[in-house]
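If your schedule permits, I should be very grateful for your opinion on a structural question. I would ask you to consider whether the tokens describe a fold that such a sequence might reasonably adopt. Thank you for your consideration; the sequence and its tokens are set out here.
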Amino acid sequence: MRIKKLRLKYIHYGKKKLKRFYFDEYDEPISTWKIERVIRHYNLYPDKAKQDKLQSKLKNQIKKNRIQKLEIKDEYWFLFHLDTIVIYWGSLKRYILTAIDHHGKIAYARSYKNKSSRSAKDFLYRLHYLIDAKIANAQTDNGSEFYGEFEEALNELEILHWFSRPKTPKDNAVCERFNQTLQYEWLNDGNFTADGRKLNIALTEWLVEYNFHRPHEKLDYKTPFEYFEDTLKSNNILLPMYSARTIA
């Protein structure tokens, strides 16, 4: 069958592309609905197991810097810890990417509709823009969102990537504690909404509270920004924390 032959040749192409190829090759129009029926009937889908195996192989080929090998300096922006919180809301899933500075505990977070390397890339660029300073190192776990486009963004920004050991949350304890605070003091207080824009606005208001008003035990009960001002004798760095446009 013509459609089956084309689909097998271009297994990753969508129905509209196959419609175009069908017309070019056979000089006959065809509907995307008919193409979809053939795909379903013959189960003409990419081999997901094969794709997952290949992706896993590619991940393993990446030379991973383990966080235990990094000599951490007590300096602002020397190391940011990043992580992802997964929220289940009925049939919906939402993801909150989080980041916190190792030294001064200044934190940032943003919600996304999907857990992809593109979302993580967007998050990293926003973090870099808001900090407005050179970030030397970033630590993540081994989640799929922290590969691909995220790695490309790290290279562009000249940030070194350090990984936690698999299934070892204590390797990223600083961010784990921040995530617990965010969940306990904000999410569990009924602040979640499925509307991504409203969620990020509400999350930003809480981040302002966290960074500017909430005392931190590790910082001698100063807020992260009070500690920043007192230790560096510098101007404020204001974090707008959300903008009018996002890819999510």
